[in-house]
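Dataset card, provenance and construction

Sequences and ligand SMILES were collected as paired inputs. For each pair, a complete structure of the chain with the small molecule in place was predicted and serialized as structure tokens. The example below shows a pair involving zinc ion. Curators did not alter the output after generation; any descriptive sentences attached to a record were derived from the structure itself.
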Amino acid sequence: MHIQLADVLFEEGRTFHYEIPLERDVMEVGRESFALYEKSPVVLDIVNTGGQVIEIEGSCQVSAKIPCGRCLKEVETSFMLSISRKLDMKGSEQERMQRLDGVDLITGTKLDVERLVYDGLLAQWPMRVLCKEECKGLCSTCGADLNTDPCGCDRQSLDPRMAAISDIFSAFKEV
Ligand SMILES: [Zn+2]
Ligand SMILES: [Zn+2]
């Protein structure tokens, strides 16, 4: 969804209020995509503070299903975005590009709200999500979910790193 900023740019000092639905229902992070749901409208207050500088303040709530970093079970993760951007619209797009002034957000006089939310989500995206702190993950041998299905595989002898660690522990015990 886009917002036409022509009125904002024309009228200094007046705050324009917007509540618009978020269209995006997938979030791409690196090569992965995640389904978005429970999306609140994007609420924005936009004001031209003078001299072609616009300030954008806003918020949006959205949830994403992110697989647990250990067992891959989808974890419902909510985000409370608070948006605060200040964009200097002076000069040509090329000049703004050099100043890194939101060229990706505004084309002509249109603000790309989807992009605004994408930037906010990306900044808050967790490195890793766990379904629970003590999640046991998947068996590296048979792939069973060890939280619900203790498969009985002898994983230690098959993982050379684990074997090295248990050697250290047994050596320690003998001392
Ligand atoms: Zn898990
Ligand atoms: Zn197993």
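Derived descriptions for this record:
The helical segments are 6-10, 93-99, 113-124, 155-158, 160-174.
DSSP finds five helices and nine strands in the chain.
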